Structures are given as C-alpha cells and as structure tokens.
Amino acid sequence: MAAFRDMEELSQGLLSLLGANRAEAQQRRLLGRHEQLLGRLLETQDGAEQRLREILAAEQEVAQSLLDAKERARQGGAELRQLEAELRAAGAEDAQLGGSLRELSRELEELKELEAELRGQERALDEDTTVTIPAAVYVAQLYRRVSEIEWDYDCAPSLVKGIHHGPRVAQPIHLDGAQLSRKFISDYLWSLVDTEWRP
Hints:
This protein is mainly α. It has helices at residues 2-17, 23-147, 182-192, and strands at 149-151, 159-165, 170-176. Helices cover 76% and strands 9% of the residues. Helix 1 (2-17) packs antiparallel against helix 2 (23-147). The termini are far apart.
C-alpha cells in the first residue's frame, strides 16, 4: 500500500516537471489516466482488505460454532453413556422384579389352593355340624329349661355369671373360677336345680 502512495507522489512530481513543454499535455493525460488507475487500485485494495477482514471474522465465527458443536457432542456423548448405564441398571432391576413377581405369583397360587382346600373343609364341617348343631341347641335349651339358669356369656372366662329363675325368686349367680374349685361350682349349680316334679 505504501508503494502505491510513493508511485502517486512520483507521478505528481513528474507532472509538475513536464508542465513546461508541449509533450506535457499527452504525458499529463497519461499520468492522469495512471493516477485514476492507481486510485481504483487503491479502492480495490481497500475493498479487498475489508472483505478479507469480513472473511476472517466469518471464519472465526464458524470455528467458534464448530468448537461449540464439538462441546455439545461431547456432552451429548456423556449423557448418552449415562442413559445407557441407567438403562442397564433398570434392566437388572426389571429382571429382579420379574423374579419377585414370579415368586409372588407362585405364593398366590399356593394361597388359592389352600383357600380352596379350606373351603372344602368348611363345607365338610358344615355338613358334619348340620346334624350336631341342632342337637347341641336342643341340649342347651333342655339344660336351661331344667336348670332355669340364664347365663351371662359376656363375662370374663374365669367367672361363672347368670341368673337362676327359681320357683320362688330370681337369684343372681356370680362365682369366681380362679378362687373356687370346679367341683364346688358344679355342686353349687346342681344344688340350684329344683328336684320337685312339676307336670
């Protein structure tokens, strides 16, 4: 660029020296043309430098974009590896849960079989007790009619409570089985039964 400026100054010096004679006019035209060409050349050079600066800036932007893309790809690769590890862990957990589910299904089948067996036993028990329950109810009703004792079934298991509806007055019964012998309680209860015949 400095060389072009020097040539321009030289051209101007030559124009001033040749200004005295007639050939100067032609030389002036040539030098003027030369000066125009130099001006265009300088403008072109300035434009080229501007374009070069723009290209360099664009290259830097592309290089930065490329670096950013490489960083994103690296991060994406790390995330992908982490997701693959999580997928493997989930697969292992799924296999373990599948084993647990099979075990629970087997236990459920065993429980269903046991339930069916218990239902069968209940049906058999119901068939067995169909005859004995009325007999037991009959015996209890007969005992109540003979003994005239109304039992309190809500008391503690060690207590014997109820009301004896005797021939004369109702008499409460309250015996503690923890303090009295079974024989005494039995004898006492039998003593309450009226032995007098009543049609």
